[in-house]
Amino acid sequence: MSMFRANIEAMTGYVPGEQPPPGKIIKLNTNENPYACSPQVTRAIERACAQGLSRYPDPSATAFRHCAAQVLGGAHALDIGPEWILCGNGSDDILTIVTRAFVGEGELVRHPTPSYVLYRTLAEIQGARVEEVPFAPDWTLGSQFAAPADDLRLAYLANPNSPSGTMIAPDRVFELADALPCLLLVDEAYVDFADTDCLSLVARSEKIMVARTLSKSYALAGLRFGFLVAQPHVIEQLAKVKDSYNCDALSIAGACAAIDDQAWRMENREKIVAARSRLTQAMRELGFDPPDSQANFVWNPHPELPVQPIYERLKKAGVLVRYMDYPGIGDGLRITVGTDSQIDACLSLLKTLV
Amino acid sequence: MSMFRANIEAMTGYVPGEQPPPGKIIKLNTNENPYACSPQVTRAIERACAQGLSRYPDPSATAFRHCAAQVLGGAHALDIGPEWILCGNGSDDILTIVTRAFVGEGELVRHPTPSYVLYRTLAEIQGARVEEVPFAPDWTLGSQFAAPADDLRLAYLANPNSPSGTMIAPDRVFELADALPCLLLVDEAYVDFADTDCLSLVARSEKIMVARTLSKSYALAGLRFGFLVAQPHVIEQLAKVKDSYNCDALSIAGACAAIDDQAWRMENREKIVAARSRLTQAMRELGFDPPDSQANFVWNPHPELPVQPIYERLKKAGVLVRYMDYPGIGDGLRITVGTDSQIDACLSLLKTLV
Questions:
Q1: Does the structure show a pLDDT above 90 at B327?
Q2: Under DSSP, is residue B198 helix (H, G, I), strand (E, B) or coil?
Q3: Which helix (H) or strand (E) segment is A113 a member of?
Q4: How many other C-beta atoms lie within 10 A of the C-beta of residue B272?
Q5: Of B79, B76, B27, B53, which is closest to residue B221 (Cα–Cα)?
Q6: What is the mean pLDDT of residues B118-130?
Q7: Which residues lie below 8 Å from residue B226, measured CB to CB, with a gap of 6+?
Q8: What is the pLDDT of residues A173-209, one digit of tens each?
Q9: CA A287-A288-A293 angle, 5° bins
Q10: How far, in Å, are A236, B24, B201, B340 from residue B35 at the CA level?
Q11: Secondary structure of B13-64 in HEC code, one letter for each residue
Q12: What's the rounded Cα separation, in Å, for the pair B32 and B218?
């Protein structure tokens, strides 16, 4: 007997990157930040924990929304308040909420390819159809991405993109959103490592939503906290779809402390960006062909060598990177920007392997 | 311009119980546990926090699933392993996952009424239809609950039920599930305060799923942790629908410590059950007509008096209870079982009001 929805039974489900138990392995496969979070965060969590956990948390994480509106509004000369922000249990929760709010059974979503494969999973759970629009070889995005299509209800754009680490410029994103017959979800999971971002576009267009996460640039993947910035009437509808208490008391406390400590974020960013340059340069010297990255990882296709054996040998030697192979595009190693010594260890090994 | 799904725009959204800022108010409105959680839990959270939050948590909360299978299996002489358990960001996340996995647009769900109003919200988000089956005046459930119906894809049963605090006996639940043309989700949020439960039915029928939460009986509403027990082939499909990292590192650590400390839970339960008896008795003496409760709250309709003014006056005096009014059934005060002194304060006030 099966009583599951046919689309659920048919799908394979999203497979997250390997999470080996903590130990000697150098983990450069899931774009985690290699540094510990701001000490303000752990202090805030300890305080919240001491205050007790028996009560339900604030259903809308008001404290974070105030704080984030101030920090982000200030940084972008944007006049936004808490009503522009929806908080989630990681930005995956945000992507889920947005998909459920816009996309019904049999309807269409669109995203570029190769990109974050979770977009397809979310569409499949809705019983929706997926249209993948290939990036150009230079990782730009043609007007096909904004073409009209029956039943097109939502477009996703990871920006910076994974695995490429490349970015579509905000002006171009605005053009694409303007032309699209549906809303555009700009997934800025990695944007704090980039030179620019699309946040201010939200004030210019009700069709643009920007998703952020604290997992990467605030080193808080274990905490699960993300948020969406969009016009208030959009946030208001989306709030109906989220679970009532989707963010717990500890993550709200930690997230407030994190976004409040911009000095920590800037300093962390400097380290990651410097290490990224060095990694990119070294990979080119090893014969790989990485595009310039705007994220905390570098995408390394190789023009001649098969890279899967390299991935396997790195893993055997204790360095875990992400091997990805995209039909029609080819394969590569996506290497997270680790600490200087992690990068050194990875590069020394690679020198013996290529 | 609106591009939301019509069902999303049409719905009003779930309104959680009031969460006033911490302070002098006596909060007996959302069935939180009035005591602090086990000290083992806060210690485990502090340890996890000190170990760092930069890495993603275990996507399937394996440690908790092992621990829970052992504790619950042992208590019920049930041979279940971790593959019988799915963890969620609160049991609301579990209810969401189950609904998304079974219920498509235009299909039907069923639940008794009056009960937890979130079931309707979850169906509305799916664009599904809802059939409400009234409880009998003595809070039993007739065979209408298990009647065949086109497109019926899921039935929910809060057991113990809210607001009544009453329970359908496990044998009757098994009968109903057996007759139903779909799976039955038994929501046991309050079951640790009851005399019995439906956990062992899961081994007898693949049509029965049991949801649990740590919010009530473990005093961890702020942590957001719930789980589902069902047959492994059911869990396997449901796991595709959950967000990849739906439980954070701190809640997994805290949840493991909580379920491991059954001595704390039993001691807490004794206090709540004793206070519940006293509250029920006192409410009857005040002229209310509460059914015997199997939960950590008592439902208090009044055969003569209108109770809304009583709710208002209690609130003004600093005691917050839940006022509920069900069309065709009537209204009442749902009062959470607090500490002895909270109950005393509430009762003293009530004596001046009725």
A1: no
A2: coil
A3: strand A108-113
A4: 23
A5: B27
A6: 97
A7: B87, B88, B89, B90, B91, B92, B93, B94, B211, B212, B213, B214, B215
A8: 999 999 999 999 999 999 999 999 999 999 999 999 9
A9: 140
A10: 35, 16, 31, 11
A11: CCCCCCCCCCCCCEEECCCCCCCCCCHHHHHHHHHHHHHCCCCCCCCCCHHH
A12: 10
Closest residue, chain A, to B31 (C-alpha): A55
Residues in chain A with CB shorter than 8 Å from the CB of B34 are 54
- Distance (Å, rounded) from C-alpha B255 to C-alpha A288? 45
Is B251 close to A250, i.e. CB distance below 8 A? yes
Question: Testing the interface with B: which of A95, A183, A248 to mutate, by most B Cβ within 10 A?
Answer: A248
Going by the DSSP 8-state scheme, the letter that residue A287 receives in this structure is T
Taking the C-alpha atoms of residue A77 and residue B301, their distance in angstroms, rounded to an integer, is 54
**Whole-number pLDDT of residue B1:** 54
Query: Number of helices and strands (H, E) in chain A?
Result: 12, 11
DSSP assignment of A30-72, as one string? S---SSPPPHHHHHHHHHHHHH-SSSPPPTT-HHHHHHHHHHH
Q: Is A111 helix (H, G, I), strand (E, B) or coil?
A: strand
Residues in B closer than 8 angstroms to A49, CB to CB, are 42, 45-46, 49
H helices of A103-224, in order, are: 118-126, 170-179, 201-204
CA distances from A235 to A4, A107, A249, A352 (A): 31, 22, 21, 52
**Confidence class for position A75, pLDDT limits 50, 70, 90:** confident
User: Do B157 and B172 contact (CB within 8 A), yes or no?
Assistant: no
Residue in the structure block whose two tokens are 């997230």: A255
Cβ–Cβ below 8 Å for B16 and A56: yes
Residue pair A321/A335 in contact by the 8 Å Cβ criterion: yes
The pLDDT tens digits for A119-170 are 999 999 999 999 999 999 999 999 999 999 999 999 999 999 999 999 999 9
Going from the C-alpha of B128 to that of each of A52, A99, B335, the distances in angstroms are 38, 17, 32
